[in-house]
Amino acid sequence: MAVRLPRPHRMDVYIAVAGLLGGLLLWGLDLGTRTARDGIVVLDGRWWILLPLVVTAGCEALRRTTPRTALLVGWAALTLDTITQGNLLTVLMFTDLVYAAVLYGPPATARRVPWIAGLATVAFTVVPLGAFRKPDALLIGLVVGLVALMPAMTGWIVRNHRDAAEAARLRAEQTALLAEMDRAQAVVSERARMARELHDMVANHLSAIAIHSTAALSLDDPDTSRQALGVIRENSVEGLAEMRRLIGILRDASDDTEPSAAPTLDGLGPLVEGARTNGLDVSLDADHGDSLPVPVELAAYRIVQESLTNALKHASPGRVTVAVRQSDGSLDIAVTSPYGDRDGPSAPGSGAGLVGMRERVALLGGTFEAGPESSGDGKIWSVRATLPVTEGEPA
Length: 395
Description:
Oligomer: single chain
Distance between the termini: 79 Å
Helix content: 55-70%
């Protein structure tokens, strides 16, 4: 199976062609780097100069795709060039091969080439100086340093800058990705909070409207219908006020769009009175401090509100109890209602209320339980929540 060579980069081809044409121009003008009188020209004759020139130009075309192979072949071509009359473009193209091997080669090659070039520079400085014992021998090491060490170090510096820029780009992309993930999570959390608020504020009033409108339609009694319509109107007005409060929260605070304050546990009394108006037999036992954190008060209020809404929709006739008590480091909430089949009209439920209560408690690091229980008065539905509280923390 034939091995397919990688396709050269377009810019590398341009460099190779330019180097070859430049070398041919010097060759045509008979401008070599040395003459036969120098004593190191083994292959005399102008035609020998073309072989290393053409080979090095071919390596230039592969300087980016196969940098190690191009450097090794170019080194062999340069060695051949040193025993001919030589061509300056062959030497210049070899320096570029050293630079490209460090810049585009594998990490191991990028580390080794500068070391090899440095050792070669030292060797070609010390050995000729010791052998000839003439200061002119230092020029050999200088030439090797210019041809090998300098392009290798230049390639190492450029590669480090390129890698640092790439690392900075990747960090910027990761930062942008994390910021986008945080933004998306914040949006999801805000939407979930809005959904809980909307459900808890409106579901109670709409459930009462649905139940009493069903009763008004099913009973042919003017007094009962009038009472039902009164309850419907009251819940409609309160629901509209709650919707306006939510809209005020969503708007920017300016002029007459200031959002209303969040409900607190001081509003449990009016909340229970509203549930009694809707037909529930509710008893309230509240014993809490005056310095609860705002999130705790809001969560406790919404849990009681949603529990009363569920009792209105699903509970059988009987006493509904609400207990809110503050103990050491926590606020305990318990709402119980008779559990069984409802005789009168009921409103449909989707289960979102229990999900919302559970989410509120989880956000505050508390515990939540809801389900049927057995008691002395029969089977009941119980909602119990414990919210952690920092004693004395200002609201």
